[in-house]
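This entry is listed as follows:

___
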Amino acid sequence: MDTPPAPIFTPAPTSPATLAQLDELVGNSRAAHARFQEAAGNARAPVRAAAGSPVGSDSWARAQVQVAALESVRSEALMALAEIDSLYAEAAVSGGEVAQLEQARSDVSAMVADEDRLIAELLGQIGS
């Protein structure tokens, strides 16, 4: 007795509304990353000046404020990434197409990882 071949699964296409939301989230992340890079440029001099300074000194405090500003900007990309993860989970659970969502997750995750590395580097220079 021959068993018929299993049907080939074809995921449902991603809705235009979801794709529009995804484009907006990725665009917001890119804009936030650009702001982060600008803020990082502004943070480098105060961080260099604080290297080796005692915790609580004026230069240490100025550097900490600059790094806190970077962390604030980074949170924008983190929020977008969380929303992209939610869209991805919805699509995956419902059997929808996830390739574009995976690419967006990868792109935004790379931006966040880059920002995390720089923040850790700057904090290491401050010695906090």
In short: The mean pLDDT is 93. The first helix runs from residue 16 to 50. The helical segments are 16-50, 58-93, 99-126.
